Amino acid sequence: MIIDLRRFVSEEQAYWDELQSVLAKLEADPESRLSLDGIQRLHYLYERCSSDLSRLDTFATEPSLRAYLDSLVSRAYSLIHETRAPVKLRWRSVVFALPRAFRRNFGAFRLAVAVTLLGCAFGWFALHIDPRNKAILMPFGGLLVPPSERVAQEEKAREDRLKGVKASFAAQLMTHNTQVTIMAMAMGLTFGVGTLVLLFYNGVILGAVATDYIAGGQGVFLAGWLLPHGSIEIPAILLGGQAGFILAGALIGWGDRTPRADRLRAVAADLVAIVGGAGVLLIWAGTVESFVSQYHQPVLPYGLKIAFGLCELAALSFFLGWAGRE
Amino acid sequence: MSRRARSLTIETPEGVEFSYELASPVLRALAWIVDVAAISVLTKGAGKLTELLAPLNQDWAGALYAILYFVISIGYGIALEWRWRGQTLGKRVLRLRVVDAQGLRLQLSQVVLRNLLRVVDMLPLAYFVGGISCFCSRNAQRLGDLAAGTIVAREREPYVPDIERIAPAKYNSLLAYPHLAARLRTLASPDSVRIAVQALSRRDGYDPVARLELFEELAAYFRSLVRYPAAAAETITDEEYVRSVLRVIYGSQ
Q1: Do residues B151 and B20 make contact, with C-beta atoms less than 8 angstroms apart?
Q2: What ipTM was assigned to the predicted interfaces of this complex?
Q3: Which residues of chain B have pLDDT under 50?
Q4: Which end of chain B is more exposed for a tag (fewer CB within 10 A), N or C?
Q5: B143, exposed or middle or buried, with CB in 10 Å at 0-12, 13-18, 19+?
Q6: How far apart are CA B109 and CA A75, in angstroms?
Q7: Taking CB atoms and an 8 Å limit, are B251 and A5 in contact across chains?
Q8: Residue B36 in contact with residue B26, Cβ under 8 Å?
Q9: DSSP annotation of B107
Q10: Nearest CB to B186: which of A59, A264, A268?
Q11: Is the peptide bond before B229 cis (omega within 30 degrees of 0)?
Q12: DSSP-derived 3-state class of residue B6
């Protein structure tokens, strides 16, 4: 019990001030390292202030002093008991964060691919049983034109229809697709149902468009049109779906006895790495879609576009599969 | 029955407890309004900037605006909460702070995640989902907070009443007994001290009879905690006794 508060404060104030200055220094520069003596001193100051705080509990009518010590102890606690490594924005860790997180959670990616393929199959089936379903399934009017007619129009075009709007169009694609990817991840909060629906819906559209063009004998045009940007854009959205399923998995637990808060804490860095990486991929995909994909034969030969798309897909697969392996 | 707590208490392995006062959904909504205003000012600034660039190239200026708008909308919360250790402009104004729910250091991944998951909390509009989650969760967490393992805490303002105004300095007979004064400081509950401060601050507004009764009750409570010698305590009125008690508790002479 504290008998004389003034004496208590005057005796302890120097230790509180010292702890305050050490904390301020460490908080201002999270990457700074203390010497062994410095660590021992910090620990001593933390224990001393903790003890002062519990002594003050017997002295309940000092709210301002209690709040001050509460704040000092909580700040010191967060530094001393933190076991997660501080964030170091080194180029290697940033570049390899995506492939490492991708490989750690490959099961969730496989699920995202499976759901999208299921959607594709549904899109194919819907168009196969009744071609009139095209009007319902196609996301925008340009795709309602018969494929052969569209291909003829595109190949005859002498004017650049995106002239003067290419950069704006690319920016729209980047921001829209990034929003879709973030949404695919965030919908993991619905225990994965929202992510599942979003990926399935994307798959349905993709399947319907592919069925329409292949059935119309325009498979080469379709590959030349979609591969340059789609080989990056579609995997990026699948990565968003992967993040959504990781989040859902952490929420549900599947027999994992770890508390839910700890499961979510364990996947937070991977979610951010995957969605952040997908965002970067979508900047590239948006640029390619606007500046390359919309130009067809004879401006850009289909063979060249398909080869370009396949090279991108191979590079992305290599990056996700092997980059940063230890 | 509400499951919501007003504060989150963390017990350290050393057996010491510290606590965070949780921000109410209403305070958080006010902070959000300030942030929306800040975001709209920033996006308007971006609009003006790209307007200046438009004569050079309309297309690239439009692209720049679309990207800046997106980056500001998504990045505002992430950048400020990371740079200002859990605070945006709105949270700073309302004295709120995002902290780790286990009292540990707030990580960049937590800041990014809680801000990205805002898209679900905002559904279908005006943070309906996030608001429901705040009202229903024990620690007033929206879904983004639950997933990122964060809470929004109120920064405590030290409560120091203007003791010179409500209890002007006079000879205080209670201070003649330091051991009893120390005991009084120890035993008086914070709530009772707060009530006494309020009662003295508003004394002129009370009905005379109610005022007598109120100070009689308060004096009786403080007298029950510590028994002062008759010479020190019985020659002064109840109101004077409460005033002397406050000067003892706040360490004034």
Answers
A1: yes
A2: 0.86
A3: 1-2, 253
A4: N
A5: buried
A6: 19
A7: yes
A8: no
A9: P
A10: A59
A11: no
A12: coil
What is the distance between the alpha carbons of residues A135 and A129, in angstroms, rounded to a whole number?
Answer: 14
B54 lies within 8 A of chain A by CB:
no
For B119-177, the pLDDT digits (tens) are 999 988 888 999 899 888 888 899 999 999 999 998 865 555 566 666 666 777 787 88
Residues 6+ positions from A283 with CB-CB distance below 8 Å: A174
Q: Which residues lie closer than 8 Å to B62 by C-beta, 6 or more apart?
A: A165, A167, A168, A171, B50, B54
User: Is A276 touching B (CB cutoff 8 A)?
Assistant: yes
Asked if B66 and A276 come within 8 Å (Cβ–Cβ), the reply is: no
- Cβ contact, residue pair A171, B66, below 8 Å: yes
Instruction: State both tokens at A291.
Output: 């500046």
Any CB–CB contact under 8 A between A164 and chain B?
A: yes
Three-state SS for B152? strand
Highest mean pLDDT among A76-85, A198-207, B172-181: A198-207
Residues 232-251 of B with CB under 8 A from A: 249, 251
Q: Any residues with CB less than 8 A from the CB of B65 and at least 6 apart, and which?
A: B46, B47, B50
> Does position A59 have pLDDT exceeding 70, yes or no?
no
pTM: 0.81
The DSSP bridge partners found for residue B11 are B17
CB of A266 within 8 Å of any CB in chain B?
no
Q: What is the 3-state secondary structure (H, E, C) of chain A?
A: CCCCHHHHHHHHHHHHHHHHHHHHHHHHCCCCCCCHHHHHHHHHHHHHHHHHHHHHCCCCCCHHHHHHHHHHHHHHHHHHCCCCCCCCCCHHHHHHHHHHHHHHCHHHHHHHHHHHHHHHHHHHHHHHHCHHHHHHHCCCHHHHCCHHHHHHHHHHCCCCCCCCCHHHHHHHHHHHHHHHHHHHHHHHHHCCHHHHHHHHHHHHHHHHHHHHHHHCCCHHHHHHHHHHHHHHHHHHHHHHHHHHHHHHHHHHCCCCCCCHHHHHHHHHHHHHHHHHHHHHHHHHHHHHHHHHHCCCCCCCCHHHHHHHHHHHHHHHHHHHHHCCCC
